[in-house]
Structure formats: C-alpha cells, structure tokens
Amino acid sequence: MSNDTDVLIIGGGAAGMMAAIAAAGGGSRVCITEKNEKLGKKLFITVKGRCNLTNACPADEIFDHILSNKKFLYSAVNGFTNADVMAFFEDNGVHLKTERGGRVFPVSDHSSDIIKALEKSIRSLGVSIRLNTGIKSLIIKDGICKGALTYSGERITAGSVIVATGGLSYPSTGSTGDGYRFAAAAGVKVTERYPGLVPFIIAGDICPRLQGLSLKHISVRITRRDNGKKLYEGFGEAMFTHFGVSGPLILTASSEIAPDEYTAAPVLHIDLKPALSSDELDKRLIRDFEKAGNREFKNSLSELLPSKLIPVIVGLSGIDPYKKVNSVTRQERRTLGGLLKDLKMDIVSTGGYEEAVITRGGVDVKEINPKSFEAKKVRGLYFAGEVLDVDAHTGGYNLQIAWSTGYAAGAGAADTQG
Q: Of these four, 278, 342, 365, 388, which has the most CB atoms within 10 Å of its CB?
C-alpha cells in the first residue's frame, strides 16, 4: 500500500516550513501537520512581532555566536547560509533591512510578511497543510519510522518523518516538548533542558523602582558569590523589568552561564560608565559638583544619570540627599564613583520558559547525522530546529539555525525518497 505522503513534517514553525520547501523542492510529496490554527505562531511574536530573521555578519562569523554544538552545525549552516536566507525572502517579495549588530528584519517590521512568504512558497510547491492536527506518537517498526498517529486516531503513513516541533519556550505558541517525547519513545537520547535567552530575576526592590528604564552602552559582569569567579562579561544594552533585568546583553549572558551556576545565586555587576576609568569618573564628578554649586546632592546628578536612576543611586550611596553638593567629602565622592562603576545586584534565578526566547538542550546531536539530520538509530526519522540541542546568541542566529537545519532535514528526507 502506498504512503499518504513521501515526507511528513510535524510542526509548522520556521524549521518545519523551510524543511517543507526543501523537501517539496526536491520533488517529494510533502505534508505539514500543525497543532495550532495557523503556521508560524512563534515566528509571529519574534522580537515583538518584527522578526529578526537572521544576521548579516560574514557567514563564517555565524559560528562565533553558536553556543552549543557548533561543529555539528557546520554542514547545515554552510549548506544554507544567512545570504541564502536573505535571498530566499527577497526573491519571495520581502524587502529586508539590516540594523545595529547585523540584525536583519523585514522593512515593514511585520513578522506576518515573513510567514506569508513561507506560506506562499509552500503552497506553490503543492505542500499539503493540515492545521489543528496534533500528533500523538510516531509509527516505528523494525527500526524504521513509517509515519505518525494523530490524537484523533488517524494514521498518516510516510516515507520519512521530520520532527520540527520546537522546544519548551513560549508554551502558549504550542511549544510543549512534543518532540522530546517522540525522540525518547524512538530511543533517541534527549539532553537536560533549560530556559535560554531569558531575563534575570533580581532580589530586592531596585528593579521594580527602575521598571521600564533602558540603559545603553553599559558593561556587565557576572560573578560567583562564593569566590568571585567571573562567569560572564559583556557590553551592550539592558532594561529593567518589574522582576529583574532583561535586554539583549542580559539575554546573551543568561545563555553563556552554565545552568548549575544559578543555584549559587551569582552577582550581577553593572558598570554604568564603562567609557571612563575610576579616576576619569572622579574628575567628571568634581566638575559636575562644581557646576552644581550649592545644590542639594539629590539634584546634582541630572547630567550624569537618567532621572529614574538618580534616587536609587542617591539612596545606595549613603550620602545625605539634602547635603549641599559642595560639602560632599572626597571619600563620599569616591564611594559614589565606585557605585557607578560597580552597581551590584543579586541574581535569584532566571525567568522560566514563558519568558525564554529559546530552549537550551534537547535531542542529543550525537544521535543525529549532521548532513541529513536523520536519526542514526531510526531510519526515516529526522529532527530540525529548536528541538535539537543547539542554541546561539540573540541577534538572528537562532532563527538562522532553524532555517539551516530545516533545509538540511528537508533535503535529506527528500533524498531518501529518490
């Protein structure tokens, strides 16, 4: 009896849609099943609906930003590069722009344009799309994956199956870990998983008081509380939330630090004036204080700090806020300078999967062929995208991984049909 389809793709996100395009482009009959009512639900909310779809850095620099298993991704990323991704969307009518840090967005700033381009390409290739269709389990016999069983009890037979179900981040978009369950049931190892690219939860009341404040051009260092060992250091932008700190710099830090380090409640150090040495900052403070003349201390920092930050710094400095600025002692000024160069906060933990951009950990890449993305233990079973144990910095790199692995898996699954 013939199969219902040549290639069945479970999951209609970035990796799944690109896998469909590659497989159908290779001449295979392709079917996508998606548990949601539409394709690309997580793509739709990426970067507040703007969709940072890749990074325009030189192709070989992509690997500098991959944090887990970069060697495994060499073939896939070189096989479908960031230039290929940009060309694909431009060819499908999406005009692109490159912003700070090489981040690539649609000119419209609408993620819906990215999804429409993918859907248009998929439909033009004759791919069957089945929405509101959840997959309960894979059909595996004699070490060969032959299809899947839906929750409604329907059997969908296929020559190959690609699992592109995403991870655990943003569970409201349908990322509930189905792919890990499929892998485990097939005998494919799954590594420990954690929220990735996620905000920090900070102790105390400083962050709620600063909620909504963005700080640009700051330096951040994270250390162990017990021995002062440096866990991360970086420069960029951060933002205070009602529970802690977020922003590109913090998200990157969260994925550079080993998950078990958070159990020791590490310390966040913020240098508010990284362009100035301690001595240069002290000279700046002297000039500002001289200019302020006979003002009270609490009214003397407006040229140095954002207004929302001033009362917090004044309180932490230990200097009487009503003290005349020309009466501030040298030691008090030095203490203030030290605070501006090293504002300390205690990290309680990271946020959960609800705030995480990606999932760290997943299907063990040692069990996956790095060229075809077929499972080594189960013929006809492929994995692509966030379900794999691969992750990267923020800045378009994780979506690049999704496009590249999806394309590789789609091409690999199509080849087996030939």
A: 388
